[in-house]
Amino acid sequence: MTTVRAVVTDIEGTTTPLAFVHEVLFPYARARLVRFVTENEADGQVAAALAAARELGGIEGADTDATVRLLLSWLDEDRKAGPLKLLQGLIWRKGYEEGVLKGEVYEDAAAVLRRWHDRGLRLFVYSSGSEEAQRLIFGCSDKGDLAPLFEGFFDTRIGAKTESSSYRAIAETAGLDAGAMLFLSDHAGEIAAAREAGMQVVQIDRALKRDSWSEGAGAPVAGSFDPVDRRFFAE
Asked: In sequence order, what are the beta bridge partners of 202?
């Protein structure tokens, strides 16, 4: 087995409870979307996001109200649209800055990520959430500022998370052979795509006991970051 020199981690269900994203972050942004857009539509970033949303939605020339209705429909569909993600990130940033929001990170994930960073491992994040949202979750987390631990953050601009080409692109960007990178995620489809790209993989299943480890048919399955640390990096 090739020595792992870098770890790429997913967020939802891996480092962070799904409930935080779906029951805290998403409702927070939805409740503030209309007011945020109305008050900030002249801002460069917001204006660009609204224009991109109109183009993507095929409603070029639509007014702000119609654009907001489009964005809300995307929220209802849980559509991973870039303009929507950008606006969500801006709303969340304000919430984090005001101290209303605090990113939730599993205790084991925070401790092990710090340990890996101290050992000289290169750390990256790959999530469907925008790069901005990723930095906020880790930078304003309930376990302290974890953002400096990571060398880079990747979102779906590099490619879909279930396509192997995305993981090859991440390895190329990092300047590493894919086999020297370990990808962690709770999603079987993402694990399969990373494995096809040549990365070493472990599926995280938070429903299992924290120290659980099993050799699954498609990939090893761990209950937390702790058994991953022992299996790959025990000194």
From this structure: 184
What DSSP assignment string belongs to 50-65?
HHHHHHHHT-TT--HH
> Which residue in this structure is represented by tokens 């302290």?
144
pLDDT, tens digit, 9 for 90 and up, residues 172-211? 999 999 999 999 999 999 999 999 999 999 999 999 999 9
Name the class of domain 6-16+103-233. alpha beta
Domain with CATH 1.10.720 in the chain: 21-97
Residue 32 tokens, joined: 């503030």
CA 118 to chain centre: 22
Which among 196, 151, 198 has a CA at the least distance from the CA of 171? 198
pLDDT in tens, 202-226: 999 999 999 999 997 789 999 999 9
In the chain, which residues fall in CATH 3.40.50.1000?
6-16+103-233
CA angle 141, 19, 53 (to 5 degrees): 85
Helix (H, G, I), strand (E, B), or coil: what is residue 66?
helix
Contact indicator for 191, 74 with CB cutoff of 8 Å: no
User: How many beta carbons lie within 10 A of that of residue 14, not counting itself?
Assistant: 26
**Residue among 137, 131, 198, 176 at smallest CA distance from 158:** 131
Domain 21-97 has CATH 2.60.40: no
- Entry pTM: 0.90
- Sign of torsion over alpha carbons 110, 116, 118, 124: negative
